[in-house]
Amino acid sequence: MFGEKASDLIKDLLRNTNQTINAYRGEDVQQILEEMNALFDANQRDVQRNRQEESDNADILSVIQVRHAALLWNKRCLISYHYERLMRLKHLRWEFGGLLPNDVRTNLSENEISWFNSYCNNLSNYMSTLNEGRGIDLTLHSKAPKRLYIQVRCLVDYGDFELDDGTTAMFSKDSTHYLPLSQCEKLIHQGILEQIIT
Q1: How far is the C-alpha of 156 from the C-alpha of 141, rounded, in Å?
Q2: Closest Cα partner for 84 from 160, 24, 131, 142?
Q3: Domain with residues 4-129, CATH architecture
Q4: Separation between Cα atoms, residue 4 and residue 171, nearest integer Å
Q5: Cβ atoms within 10 Å, residue 12
Q6: pLDDT, tens only, 80-89
Q7: CATH no. of 149-195
Q8: Which of 36, 112, 143, 192 has its CA 20 to 30 A from that of 154?
Q9: Is the confidence at residue 76, as pLDDT, over 70?
Q10: One fold for both 4-129 and 149-195?
Q11: Within 13 A of 109's CA, how many CA atoms are on the CB side?
Q12: Across 104-126, average pLDDT
């Protein structure tokens, strides 16, 4: 039946509500595109035949309309599938930065990886033009802080870390520190530090 594969793509996305990205279903996308081409070709043949016979056969026109509706359905589903995947990728960029985890990267198509790299470059270029050319990292401070200083635990041996005021902190595994949130948020996102909730 027309549109079943396209519906399956959307159902697959709806099952996965936690913003993760499942493996790209390239074979299914290709089969949907082939179905769309077959529907288009069949409609073209019937329209040409109808013109040559100079008749307005209601049965043929109904079949053409049904095929056209199926064609539009497939198109909508493909656009929705790809759009939702790109929005999830965009969300991951803001959450994790420019480096995707390997389990996510293996689930992407070549075009999605290319789009992600372009998006990262565009975002970096934009951020570097802000603040009179000095740049601002917009991925930090995505939520308003409740406190300016937080207690953090180091998860790995990182070494010396210089703060904005020039002081250094030695990050060794399992050491705890009381630091400005603005200084550690990036390291928390990278998995070097974790916030200690008290």
Answers
A1: 23
A2: 24
A3: Up-down Bundle (1.20)
A4: 54
A5: 14
A6: 999 999 999 9
A7: 3.40.5
A8: 143
A9: yes
A10: no
A11: 14
A12: 93
Rounded percentage of the chain residues whose pLDDT exceeds 90: 44
| Gap between the Cα atoms of 13 and 32, Å rounded | 16
| CA dihedral sign of residues 154, 146, 124, 115 | positive
Tell me the β-bridge partners of 88. none
Closest alpha carbon to 167 in 179, 175, 158, 156: 179
Q: What is each CA distance from 28 to 7, 32, 184, in whole angstroms?
A: 11, 6, 43
Domain spans of the chain, in order of start: 4-129, 149-195
59-73, pLDDT tens digit by residue?
A: 888 999 999 999 999
Helices 110-129 and 58-96, packing angle to 10 deg: 50
Q: 């802080």: which residue's tokens?
A: 145
Q: Is 180 left (phi over 0), alpha (psi -120 to 50) or beta?
A: beta
Structure pTM?
Answer: 0.71
Q: What are the start-end ranges of the H helices in 106-198?
A: 110-129, 181-189
Report CA-CA distances (Å) from 117 to 97, 120, 121, 146.
Answer: 11, 5, 6, 33
Query: Which structure tokens are listed for 64?
Result: 């053409």
Tokens at 142, concatenated: 């995505």
Cα separation, 179 vs 132, whole angstroms: 28
